[in-house]
Amino acid sequence: QVQLVESGGGSVQAGSSLTLTCTASGRTAGSYTMAWYRQAPGKQRELVAQINTGSNTIYSDSVRGRFTISRDNAKRTVYLQMNSLEPEDTAVYYCNFPYALTSWGQGTQVTVSS
Question: Which runs of E-coded beta strand occur in the chain?
Answer without folding.
Answer: 3-7, 10-13, 18-25, 34-39, 46-51, 57-59, 67-72, 77-82, 91-96, 108-113
